[in-house]
């Protein structure tokens, strides 16, 4: 049903569903291409954080699984837990390091590099301990014994020549190639480093110095050590955004010079160069016979080796070397790095690509050893300009593939092609890393390709579903099926849809017959323009069909007469009121010319339309059997209610109309008949004269309050009668109360309609009713009784007395909240001349709790009359008192 309706509505706009789908197919490149471009743009703009989990993860896995071996001439002397147990708490005295250098010189090591600075704390040196031992000897009771004389000679000799700094500097000078660390802090500017010879600073061009990261030195080796050291380098270990160490910061800017890293100067010394002979320019580190590529932040990316296993560096405990346990041949011609591996002597170790977690992290000395080995062997990963071009080619290629290739090849081939592209890109990145040590970041294009594929598949599924729906719908569009569908719409009262359905059929004799009867239905509804359209469509094939000429002339020439709503029986009409109440019921009706047949609804002849309300149209009609003038309210139930609610609404309509028809009270409009014809449910009722009481709610047209209270008392009496018949109005308001001031006739209208509109929803989803007059329990959807009508009557009384509603708000939710929870404004604040009993009545009748109101409407009527009568008696007594005073 919905699919048919959609196609009909599209035809009203001269749109065909299938051509639209064909047009949209031309733009099928948009979803995949736009998604791929969006993924790439977001990844590029938010890099490196978006790219890190993918690119860096793949980099770690490739580097960690390569079978590259470290340089065999590199050895690490570890300050481990065993060495600390044997030599004492770290840091150790400088004499200990001097002894180590003596051992290494004797073993024939080529280069010794300390990766941690010497002890700078104010600890008791060996010299101080010797002096303390001499003082203790002089204060002892040994006196001038032979033993005492011998101890004095030994301690005095040691005391004369054991300065630790001089001892360590002598050991460094004796070795001849010792490299010392410099500690620094990145991101800060500093003065030119004082105390370091210029031979420690490499050459660099001005652009390189400007772009190098700036740093401030926090700890230098002492001048006595710097003078004998072969080189110095910073020991800062640089981590990427995810905390893993993958690079070595080859140089930093300190004031106007470059300070190289330990790994850089160690590799230079191993190649026979001094730091001054190094040269930084054009994004590379240049030596005599090699150029090491650097990135824009002066970093080089070395290969990383595991901390243990067959592919790790040779490591020897410090204490074994110091005590001579290790054979000297193990360190001959070696590049020796001295560093801390014990967690008792340093903070947390950095995590490298070869470590799966922080538990298996490598110490800083291991990261420096990785960089030295990679520089010496040339195993450094780089990103040359050609790789950047390759990345952009892959990026644009993926976008073009998602935009233009995917829609052209179909879903199955699209999946295979996308998987192939992702595989090619991933293999290319892995192959370049492993074979050429070139890092091309191709994971973002891979993700973009998969995202474009997913979006394309989703859009393709939607497109296929629409196509299947269209094909099924077209199969049911044969002329016979369309005529049957049109008749179904016509029986349901959906005449517009019926017309559109018939127009899709060939204009043959069966179709013209159906269209002719459809035009009659439009005439019965007084929809003359639509009837004229139907007749004109038939005339395009056969102008002389049946009495088509007379029909067309009639609907063309007869004006649509809409009488003012001075005598309607229902509320909510939009037409203006007539204030002339002397109009006779015997006035002649307008003749129908040139066609003599009357429009009918059931057995009633329709004379003219009186007005439109929320639930239908009110006509002036006549019962031809007894020549009675009636007001007929017609409701197109099929248009107002959903299909699943239609049967229930029809049953409720007739049930409520029957109950209203049993009411026989002078203040309730009489219901004569109810029925259904051509999809229209109708109620024929008494034709009234007068005006709605809503006419008297304007502040400029308020009636005297005594008269209002007596009129409302009469309404309360009528409601009490209806409630005793188990009929609740549910929509009491001034617009549903007719009053003729000339005859003092008062009638409540719309019994039988209120229940229908109270709990049902229209097809637009709007709940019908008048919330301003509803009781709290009615708004909340609870079961109601006659006291709900009493609350609505109290709101009507308040509006008639004060010229405004007791509950007002800018929005519907706020209005409902006020009715349910907030008190009304006392009426006497708005009209001080009202008697005090009026507010007492409102306090009860507008109570939020139904149990606090009057027991029934008869009690309310009595209270209203008593209040109006007592005020009249009080005014008469005051007038008599004034007349008696001389």
List the helices and strands and how they pair.
Elements: H1 2-12, H2 17-25, H3 29-45, H4 52-65, E1 74-79, H5 81-87, H6 94-107, E2 111-114, H7 126-138, H8 146-161, H9 164-175, E3 178-186, E4 203-204, H10 206-211, E5 215-219, H11 223-226, E6 231-234, E7 248-249, E8 251-254, E9 257-260, H12 262-270, E10 279-281, E11 284-286, E12 291-293, E13 299-302, E14 314-317, H13 318-322, E15 335-340, H14 364-377, E16 380-381, H15 385-409, H16 411-436, H17 443-475, H18 479-491, H19 495-503, H20 509-524, H21 528-539, H22 548-557, E17 599-601, E18 604-613, E19 616-623, E20 628-635, H23 637-640, H24 643-661, E21 671-677, E22 680-686, E23 691-692, H25 705-724, E24 737-740, E25 745-748, H26 754-759, H27 776-779, H28 786-802, H29 812-821, H30 827-830, H31 836-845, H32 857-884
Parallel strand pairs: 1-14, 1-15, 2-3, 2-15, 3-6, 4-10
Antiparallel strand pairs: 3-5, 7-13, 8-9, 10-11, 11-12, 13-16, 17-18, 18-19, 19-20, 20-22, 21-22, 23-24, 24-25
Helix pairs in contact: 2-17, 3-15, 3-17, 6-9, 7-8, 12-14, 15-16, 15-17, 16-17, 18-19, 19-20, 20-21, 21-22, 25-28, 25-32, 31-32
